[in-house]
Structure formats: C-alpha cells, structure tokens
Amino acid sequence: MKRIFIILLCLAFSAVALNPTKAQTPHVTGISAIAWNPDGSKVVVGYTDGLVRIWDTTNNSLLGVLEGHSDEITTIGWSPIDNRILTGGFDGTVRVWDSSIGEQLTILFEINDPISWVGWNPDGTQILTFSVSGGRFNIWDSTSYQKIKSGRSGGATQMQWSPDETQIAVATVVGRAEVWDTTTLETIAIMNEPDTDDGWNSIYAITWDSAGERIAFGTQDGWIRLWDLSLNQIVLNLEGTNSQPRGWEYSTIRALLFSTNDACLSSLSTDGMLKIWATDTGELLEETKLSDRPIFAAAFSPNGNILAFGGEDGELQFTTGGFTSINWQGYCNEED
After folding, report:
1. CA atoms within 13 A on the CB side of 207
2. Whole domain around residue 43: which residue ranges?
3. Is residue 228 in some structural domain?
4. What is the C-alpha separation between 265 and 276, in angstroms, rounded?
C-alpha cells in the first residue's frame, strides 16, 4: 500500500471480548479510507484500486460501487446532513457523489497532486479539501460548490473543526499540529513534534475534546500528545502502541476519540492495539488487541457503538464496543 495520508474518524475502545464480523464479498485490493453515514446504518469504503463501495452495516451487505477515480482513494467524508459523499484520491480529484442513487454529482476539484484530506464542517454547509505536495487547501460552499477561501500550508493529513466551528485542528506530515482561525485561516497555535531518527514524526490523527479546550494528536512512532490550548503546552504523553519496530507501517496512531465527558481518550494504532486512557492522570485503563494484521483505515459509528476497520488485505470488518460497554462506563461517560 502506498504511504498515504488517511482521514480517520471517531474510534472508541471496548474492554469486552471483540469478535469482528466480516462484510460479504471481500475486495481484492486494500482498504485505504472509511467513513460512516449520519445515522450509522452505512459505511463508505475506499480501496487502493480507486473503487468506492457502500456497505449496509445492519446486514454487512454491499449496496453499491462508485467508479470514477483512477488511483487509490486516500480520504472519504460523508455529509452530516444528507446522502452526499466526498472522495479524494491519488489521481488528484475530489468528487461528490449521491449515495442514494450511486452517481457522481460533480468533480469539485482537480489538481496534479494527490488529495490528502476532504471533510465537511459540522453543519454540512462547507467542504474543506487539501492536496499533498502543493499544500493547497480550499473551503467550498457545499450547495453551490463555489470556492469560498483558499490558502497553503504544509502537508495536512487530517483536519477537524472545533465544536463551536471557530477553529480547525490540523495534523501534518511534517510533525506539526496546528490550530487555524476559520474566519481568517490564519494559524493561531502550533505544536511541533520532535523528529525521529528517520526524519519527521508525522501526525495522522487529531481530535478535539467536547469543550474545544484540548486537542489530542497521535504520531507515526506511536505516541499520543494531549495539548492544552489555554496553556499552549503538552500536558500528557501517552504510548499508544506496543509495536517494535516503530514506523508508519507498524506503530502509527490511526484514530483518537474523547468520551462524552472528556474523562477518557481512546486510541487505535496500526498494530491493532485499542487503548483507553484517563485524561486527568494519563493512566492506561484498559487495552486489547483488535487485529494481528496492520490496520490502515478505521472509523467508529456516530454513536460510538460499532467499529469498522480494514487494511491491505481488503477485508472490511465490524466489531461492537464503545465507552458504554466497558467496565469504565461510569468513569468515562457520567457527567460530573
């Protein structure tokens, strides 16, 4: 699988036994991106051959195939308000699809550069796209598909709007986490990750807590940093992988999720380790091995109860679990 920058959405942790179920008719090429629809009844999956498949999660059946990309799918996003899907790929195109009819609505953007990230803002009115080496990002009106704003930044791998939509958290391939003002698109905070012996310690997962006060991000060598924005400093360093050696294909943190009361943080790494942490002390509460095969794409359903994941073997799997089904459900979910 190519070394790509994959957007991963919400993940949670289960300390109960995990017994994944498999989607029907496994694909023959690798899985590179996954996203859920708003009600959690479907997932859209991108593959390394450029195909996109939509699966029904209630019975693990294939609903349709979207064809158009000529190279690997690097990023996918499902609109939070309707049936539209965004896809970006190594072919340099961002495409918008209507999942209800299985047809392409438009090619939103085309450039001679791989697309590293696409996503919707929380109310579904705007789309953000980012290309790799050119560092070009654009914000689009999701109805007219007209460009609203644009700019350049270094190698974004994942972006996420803050809960109040005034800021955007940005993970980058150059080992830097950034916060942007959504009005001006100016960088208002930066946290640099020290280089490894192999070079940049790239960041591939980033998420906000519910208050918009802390950001968690995960690195290529398997570390998770908890960044307090009011202090502008890292307040916790958490080891999110058990892998040796370390590196993109072994130890990268693929996704992160805060519990509803922000008391816990869940993490998934390429080596299949799911871990849950206490965010006040950094205590590792539980961990479990999800898979013996490398995981390159994963996403938790909107309610956090089902995890979809896959890797280079092309097998899409689902497992139940979440903060509400573990021994720590009171600690992680009850309001103070």
Report:
1. 26
2. 21-333
3. yes
4. 6
